[in-house]
Amino acid sequence: MPIEVAPPKYVVIVNAVQQRIEDGTYPLGAMLPSETELIREFRASRPVVVRALDLLRQGGWIESRQGKGRFVLGPPGGIEQRSQGRRYGLLDDDERAGSTLLAAGTVPAPPRAAVALGVEPGTPVVARRRLITVDGVGPVELGTAFLSVELAEGTGVGAEDAMPEGLLRHVASRKRLKFDHVTERISARLPSAEEAKLLQVRESDPVLTVLLVICDRSATPLLAVDVLLPASRHDLEDVYPLD
């Protein structure tokens, strides 16, 4: 029987606010409900609500105006805006230090990546899986990037050679592409036995999952990136900064 784990309350709040921004319930420029209103609605403590709002701010969904409140910026508008929030080593960093390449090559698209890329599950795609480690902290990110076989052709993404630059820059420069915007979905679940071993957590410790879909100007999905984050280690912002 599968184990179902409710996501942390702050993730529930983040997902709810993101959905309301996307569907227009909270329109561009609108002031968000106060902390007190969110505490009441979600039956959460103030620290939980503040953490959720801070994640939304870091992700570029909202902004804080001192003495006035928090206001909607809209869905993050592009790669540059995302990079001002949480950084993902799988996308941004080269592979020569603090990174272990676990696998690279053509695989059947798993359902989660298939939906993100708009293809049928099982369609051949090129995947690149890496484990990011920070000295003194341990593994902080386990991620797999998926892209179509056609897009990967000539890039070396499917090869087991280390890339001297971030994945986005590598693909963009070799295919002469311009990535326009990214969507981000955050949830939580229990890790598999393999994932727990790689991330050095217990199988009973929930991990955050982030699904990034990186699109061009026409909103065509080009890359899907599935990332696992040990939540407890991502409280250490001074070690692995979110800004």
Architecture overview:
With 243 residues, the protein is α+β, with helices and mostly antiparallel strands. It contains nine helices and eight strands. It has helices at residues 9-22, 35-42, 46-58, 79-83, 89-92, 111-117, 149-152, 167-175, 193-199, and strands at residues 62-65, 69-72, 99-108, 124-134, 138-148, 181-189, 207-215, 221-229. It has a six-stranded antiparallel beta sheet with strand order 3-4-5-8-7-6. Strands 1-2 form a two-stranded antiparallel sheet. It is globular and about 50 Å long. It starts with 8 loop residues before the first helix and ends in a 14-residue tail after the last strand.
Keywords:
243 residues; alpha+beta; six-stranded antiparallel β-sheet; two-stranded antiparallel ribbon; 9 helices; globular; disordered C terminus
Write the layout of secondary structure elements.
Blueprint: H1 9-22, H2 35-42, H3 46-58, E1 62-65, E2 69-72, H4 79-83, H5 89-92, E3 99-108, H6 111-117, E4 124-134, E5 138-148, H7 149-152, H8 167-175, E6 181-189, H9 193-199, E7 207-215, E8 221-229
Antiparallel strand pairs: 1-2, 3-4, 4-5, 5-8, 6-7, 7-8
Helix pairs in contact: 1-3
* Rounded Rg: 18 Å
What low-confidence regions span 5 or more consecutive residues with pLDDT below 50?
78-85, 235-243
Summarize the biggest pleated sheet: 6 strands, antiparallel
Order of helices and strands: HHHEEHHEHEEHHEHEE
Q: Counting H and I runs of at least 4 residues, what is the number of helices? A: 9
Mean pLDDT score: 83
Percent in helix: 25-40%
**What structural class is derived from the secondary structure elements?**
alpha+beta
Oligomer: single chain
- Taken from the alpha-carbon principal axes, the silhouette is globular
Strand order of the largest sheet: 3-4-5-8-7-6
Range of strand content: 25-35%
The end-to-end span amounts to 40 Å
Number of strands: 8
